[in-house]
Each structure stands twice: as C-alpha cells, then as structure tokens.
Amino acid sequence: MSFPWAEHYTPKHPAMQWIDEKLPLPRLVYNAVGAGYPVPRNLNYFWNFGVLAGLALMIQIVTGVIMAMHYGANTLVAFSTVEQTMRDVNAGWLMRYAHANGASFFFIVVYLHIFRGLFFGSYKAPREMVWLLGLVIFLLMMATAFMGYVLPWGQMSYWGAKVITGLFGAIPVVGEPIQTWLLGGFAPGNASLNRFFSLHFLLPFVIAAVVILHIWALHIPGSSNPTGVEVKGPQDTVPFHPYYTAKDGFGAGVFLILFAILLFYAPNYLGHPDNYIEANPLSTPAHIVPEWYFWPFYAILRAFTVDFFFVPAKLLGVLAMFASILLLFFLPWLDTSPVRSGSYRPTFKKFFWILIVDVLILGYCGGAPAAEPYVMISQVAAAYYFAHFLIILPLISRFEKPLPLPNSITEAVLGHDAIEGEREALPGMGSDPQPSHAG
Amino acid sequence: MAIVEHLESEGASVSDGGGSDGVRRRDFINIAAVSFAGVGAVAVVIPLVDQMNPSADVLALASTEVDLSAIQPGQAIKTTFRAQPLFVRHLTEKEIAEADKVDPSTLRDPQTLEQRTVDGKKQWLITMGVCTHLGCVPLGAGEGENRGEFGGYFCPCHGSSYDTAARIRKGPAPKNLEVPKYSFTSDTAILVG
C-alpha cells in the first residue's frame, strides 16, 4: 500500500509504543489519513468531496440514531411521534431538520464527487474498483434514503413507497409476489413501515463498511489528481496530514456554513408540504414526486409512454431507470481513452458539460408534472443520457486527439523550467513518457 | 495429525496406483457432510425469507362486503379491499353506451364492458382503485374530481386516462383497472374477495 517514500509511523511515547504492539490502530489511521499517506501535491477543491461525504454520513448516523430514540415504527403512531419529536422533544426539531437536510447535502456532495470522477477520469485503471465500490455506496444510499422518507408516514411517504415498490410489480410473472413480499401486504402498511425502519437503521452501517473498502481500494494505487498523470516520485506528493487535512478542514467549514444556512433559514425548502399530512391510502396527492435527488431517474422512469416490441411501457421505464445506474458500472470499459483528465481532452470536455446539462434537464423534468412538454423533453434527454455513455464516449475515446500531457505532476505545478532545476538537484528522478501504464 | 496424513497419503496412493477413479471414504464423508450442511442452510433461509410475506392478520382482512343500495346512477363510492381502494360505480345509460361503442380490438388491454361486469348487472362497475402503472389512486370516484378525457378515471401521478368501463385508453398504465373477484349476495349487496 502507498508509495515507498511514505513516512513511517514511529511512536515515541511509551504508551503509544505499547498500543502499537498490541493493536496497531493508530498506525492504521496514520497510514490512511495521516502523514503516512502521500497524496499528489496538486489536488484542487474537487478532491474535498470524498471527505465531505464521509462527514455527511457521520451527521446522518448521529442525528439518525437520536431520531430513532423518539420514533415509534407503527402506522398508528409514526406520524405523531415525528410531530412530537418536532414540537416536544428538546432540540428534536434540530435533529429532524438536520437529518432531513443532511440527506440532501449527502447527495449534493456525492453527486459532485461522482462528477469529479467523471471529469477527471478517476474511474479508469488502476482505480476501477474504487469507482465500482463508489457506485455500490450510491445504490445503498438511494435505498436508505427511500426507506427513510417512508418513516414519517406522511402522504408523500406512503405514496412514494407505493410507487417505488410498484416498480417491482412491473417485472413479468414474479413481479407481484415480489412486491407483496417487499411490503408484507397488498399495500404499504404496518409490516412495511417496520421493516423499512429496521433496514433504514442497518444500511448506513453497511455504507460505512463499504466506505472503508472504497478507501482501502483507493489507497492501493493512491489518489488520482487533476492532471491524471501518475505520481513519479517523492517530489510529486505531500503527506495527507497536515496538507490535505487542512484543505479538507477548510472545505468542511464551507460545507457546514452552507448546511447551517439551509438548516436554520429554509429547513423545509427541499421538502414537500404533502408530507405534513398523515398517510391516507384512499387519497393520492395531486402530484407525487420523490425527493429532488431522485428526479433525474424518475424522469427516465416516466419517459416511456408507449409499448415497444411487446414490452409494456411500464416495464421499459423500470428497466431504463435501473439501466441508467447499472450503466455506470461499465464506464471504466466504455471510455477507452488512456488520458484520464478531462482537462487534456478537448472533445470529451465539451460532451461532459453537455451531459451535466442533460442530467440537470432530466432532474427538472423529474420534478415537474407528468404532462407535455416535460414528457417529450425527458424522452429526448433520457435518450441522450444513454447515447452519451454507449455511443458518444466510446467514439470520442477512439477519435479524439488529446492535448499534450505534462511530464509530471511537479512540472504541471511548477512549470517546465523549474522542473529542470529540480532534476539537477535530484539525479535519477527522470520522468517516463505519458501515459505510463494506462490502457 | 500424523495418523490422518498417513491415511490420506495411503488412500491417495491406492487410488493413484490403481489407476482407477475410485471414491475414497473420506471424499464421500466430506461431500455428504458439506451437502447436508448446505441443505440445512437452505432450510434456514426459507423462514428468514417467508417472514416478509403478508402475515395472517393481513390476510384475514381479505374480503369486503359492500352495500350498493344508496349508490345512484352516475355516482361512485370508494371503499377498501385488502387495504387498497375499491371503486364501485353505478354507470348511467350514456356511460354504458359510450363503453359499448368502442371496438375492443383497438384497446391496449382489449375487454368489453360485459367481460368486466357480472351478467345482467352491466351498470355495476366494480374495480380496484389502483392505477396499473405504479399503484396511485386514480381520480374520478369522488364528486367533482377530474375524470380524464375518456370520462372514467384519471391518474394524477403519471397521467393515465381510463374510460367509462375503467379501461386504459391513454398514458403509461399497461392494463385496465383490475376487476377483483366478487359476487352479488343480494340485488343490492356484493361480497368482494
């Protein structure tokens, strides 16, 4: 793990030496997020979002465990215990608003983290496993967020649960038994609420475990960087601590300021008023929408309105929605360009920004009512989403002429002349032509 | 340990030396033990999975009685069957005529009004109030609700429109509103389920 020039953990205090012999946990931390982990010296602020996602997960676990202390997972009392938490429990309103908005912030930083990876080619060899584990975390987050939204047992909770479990009903033959099995009844009810609560409590800890695997897989090749050029020697790296603990600390401060602004001044901005009405199985809200972070996928789901080759529209929508995420698992093998960073890929860069706009359009349509022109716009945008990954990206990789890469990270940071001077000082630290082993 | 190794090497040499692919007693015991443990593991998974299925108290509420006497032509009521909405509609002559006018072969889910009602009780349209797309409750059973462009039911979630026989005519839903199993217990009462 890591580079040969990584600093070694040498505890000086006898107590720390004693611990290191018995259980080298401080050594593990030192090598993972301390001075023992060399990181490229040129990381920009887009590299903050991994740590910020970890911070968001911690906020969710702490506020969530507290919320669970005041919650009753039973359809008779669920809605009122949440209201009681808001009105009667000391600082209960703060815990609930922090938890609800914390989920949104978790998704914001994870989406930025994913787009960082998409632009800078972080999914490419040798970091495919990091990308794949990240997608597993993303799927677990979506399942957790969905089940958490059901727990307050408001109108959106109930109807969201009905629509999402209805997705499984679209599967031929086995769909309906699966749906009944998931819900423990013919419609969302007490059995569904209880199991969702149980799993909503469990999954964040599963996420935490996969995060550990994600970081473990990252630390084998080491962090990527904005140039996409591999680390060549000690001059290209700085120790994680204090350099990036400081940089991440600054990012965390900005994150918490923005979080506090939403939390204290507009805590219901991202919520739906309908969820303050208790669940009513006999009345559907006029406009069922999931939380904003599911909107792009919801738009893809609704984009299919006609049957196609005997496959019902409903099944097509469900398949397309799942495919839109599963597709990302194949990304490391769809983008065959050996150049990682979008900064050196002029054509890729243009299409990357078109993809971002496309996803934003899908998101807007997913939050809009199921009427024209939104349906038609989401059809075009959904088609483009798939075309980007399946057609455009492989073609760009084949025909694009990338810009010349810097010879090393240090050269990219200090410029060519400075590196010449540094090379004289450090004989034997020559640079290989790029790309060295990718592709 | 030494004895085991001795036996194993002896067994191996016997089968190797003989050139036959005979099964050793140890292989048999090994396969039998692992298979038995596998069967046991599968047997344990069955209750772990089955506990998620509807429980007896949920299944006990599986039938519903409805009194039709107060429902005037053109009116509909919403009640529940298996914790889901049930629509009971008293069709007018005009609505029946509109439903019969449609050629079933042009429909997404071809059915006539006769096939969707009980013989001789064509005016009573009893369907689940669950959109076949993703399970929302369509509008149209209540007074003054939007009944969509085909005069039956309209699902506000994704815009599916049903006609006066609750057949899907427009939108993403793949099927007509489901007609549950029911029977008339008298002229003005039905038992659903």
CA radius of gyration of chain A: 24 Å
Q: In CATH, what is the homologous superfamily of the largest domain in chain B?
A: Rieske [2Fe-2S] iron-sulphur domain
Name the poorly predicted regions of chain A.
Answer: 427-439
Spatial order of the strands forming the largest sheet of chain B: 1-9-8
Instruction: Work out the number of β strands of chain B.
Output: 9
- If you consult CATH, what is the topology of the largest domain in chain B? Rieske Iron-sulfur Protein
CATH architecture descriptor name of one domain in chain A: Up-down Bundle
N-to-C SSE series of chain B? HHHEEEHEEEEEE
- Percent strand of chain B: 15-25%
- For the record, the CATH architecture of the largest domain in chain B stands as 3-layer Sandwich
Percentage of residues in helical conformation of chain B: 25-40%
Described by the principal axes of the CA atoms, the overall outline of chain A is globular
The helix fraction of chain A, in percent, is 55-70%
Helix and strand content put the structural class of chain B at alpha+beta
Written as H for each helix and E for each strand, in order along the chain, the element string of chain A is HHEHHHHHHHEHHHHHHHH
**Mean pLDDT value of chain B:** 83
Uncertain segments of chain B: 1-19
The number of helical segments of chain B is 4
Computed CA radius of gyration of chain B, to the nearest angstrom = 30 Å
How many domains make up the 3D coordinates of chain B?
Answer: 2
Largest sheet of chain B: 3 strands, antiparallel
